[in-house]
Amino acid sequence: MPQFIALPAFQDNYIWMLLDEHTSQAAVVDPGDPVPVVRWLGRHPEYSLKTMLITHHHRDHTGGLSAIKAATECKVYGPAEESIPGIDRQLNDGDEFRLFGSLVQVISVPGHTSGHIALFCNDEKDPWLLCGDTLFAGGCGRLFEGTPAQMHHSLQRLAALPDETRVFCAHEYTQSNLRFAQAVEPENQDIKVRLEVVDDLRAGGRITLPSTIGLEKLTNPFLRCDQPDVIAAASQRAGNQLEAGEQTLAAIRQWKDNF
After folding, report:
1. How many CA atoms lie within 13 A of 236 on its CB side?
2. How many domains does the chain have?
3. Which of 56, 116, 152, 153 is catalytic?
4. How far is CA 19 from the centre of its chain?
5. Residue 22 bears catalytic tag
6. Active site (annotated) includes residue 133
7. Threshold 0.85, pTM exceeds
8. What is the CATH classification number for the domain harbouring 15?
9. 176 burial via Cβ count (<10 Å: 0-12, 13-18, 19+)
10. Active site (annotated) includes residue 56
11. Which domain holds residue 7?
């Protein structure tokens, strides 16, 4: 299993480094800024960057692509349905490839952007998910290009993964997301307990990731659009009775955008 290291970038991004101690090879995920990556590699010359993984085209996820590729000659994997210069292998839904000997599956998750992908490794001991800006700890990405129906379907695909799957998303939004989740479900004790833990972590300047699929299903309103309390809160906000699923997601996404 790879070791995961989070490199902070910009205001709240995380650039994930995946390390294979057996081969001394590394992979980098969504490097919006080349500086933290190049600096880390300089401090750890025992590792060789062989792979770059891109989930979507936004600049804060691709800004370091060309510089890092030029410096390391790494192979770049990215979504086939988005125009990203420098991609060596274009990935479509259902594709598979090997990373450090483990099989990685490509899941199409449109919503935040139209061609967004997530990458899932179903390791029997420690499954993991790289989900970019689709699923956040306690939330989901804004709908810049996709529709509520697309995002709902994408999130349902991720929710179907094993509960123990570790979730590596790309931003430190957990605290604000859970405060919103508590506004949606004030009686949800799982949210209350999780927010207390996250508040303590952030007070100490510590990262709140990774999450797990199981924890998200208990505390993330965007994965709970079939729950009566979430539907009721969304319906009250919208001023009319909403159906479970995409209607509820659309309402709470709009609510969150203005929270």
Report:
1. 9
2. 1
3. 56
4. 19
5. no
6. yes
7. yes
8. 3.60.15.10
9. middle
10. yes
11. 3-257
